[in-house]
Amino acid sequence: MKFDISSFNEIAKPLLNKLAEQFPLPIQVNTKRYEILNSGLETESQLLKATLHFLLQNNYLSAQAAGSDGVIIDYQLTEKGLTLLKINFEKEFSKSPSVYEQDKIGC
Fold first, then answer.
1. DSSP 92
2. CA distance linking residue 9 with residue 97, whole number of Å
3. Phi, psi at residue 17, to the nearest 5°?
4. What confidence score (pLDDT) does residue 99 get?
5. Over the stretch 53-89, which tens digit does the pLDDT of each residue have?
6. What pLDDT does residue 94 have?
7. Helices and strands (H and E) in the chain: how many
8. Nearest 10 degrees: CA dihedral of 73, 79, 83, 89?
9. Is the pTM of this model over 0.70?
10. Which among 85, 87, 94 is positioned nearest to 15, based on CA atoms?
11. Which pLDDT score is estimated for 78?
12. Could you give the CA distance from residue 80 to residue 84 in angstroms, rounded to a whole number?
């Protein structure tokens, strides 16, 4: 199996784009088989494991166990991941007025 930067890009780009499309929802990965669940994204398990490890260790993604068994892991984009995709979180967030600005708070 050959793995290089182009192999990494073939996995990382669609993965990060999928996370951006559904932000802030996570993707779920079965860590026994290293497959992405319910996403339409498919890749070889060892390559996915290595890619997720790099993205996680370099703070582009965060991870959290989705259940008590620790087999299904939720991966989410971090602010650093959004920045890599050229998505300005603060700018996107400020595009629509908040409930405070609309006087829709309180009883």
1. H
2. 36
3. -65, -40
4. 58
5. 999 999 999 999 987 787 899 999 999 999 998 888 6
6. 74
7. 4, 4
8. 120
9. yes
10. 85
11. 94
12. 6
C-alpha span between 5 and 3 (Å, rounded): 7
Please report which residue ranges of the chain form alpha helices under DSSP H: 5-21, 45-57, 79-84, 89-93
In this structure, the strands spanning 72-77 and 61-65 are antiparallel
The pLDDT of residue 58:
97
Query: Residue 23 pLDDT > 60, yes or no?
Result: yes
Whether the CB-CB separation of 39 and 82 falls below 8 Å is answered with no
Q: Both tokens of residue 19?
A: 């996370």
Task: Give me the amino acid identity at 37.
Answer: L
Rounded to the nearest 10 degrees, the angle between the axes of helix 45-57 and helix 5-21 is 70
Q: Tokens 């920045």, residue?
A: 83
Query: Which of 67, 66, 88 shows the shortest CA–CA distance to 79?
Result: 88
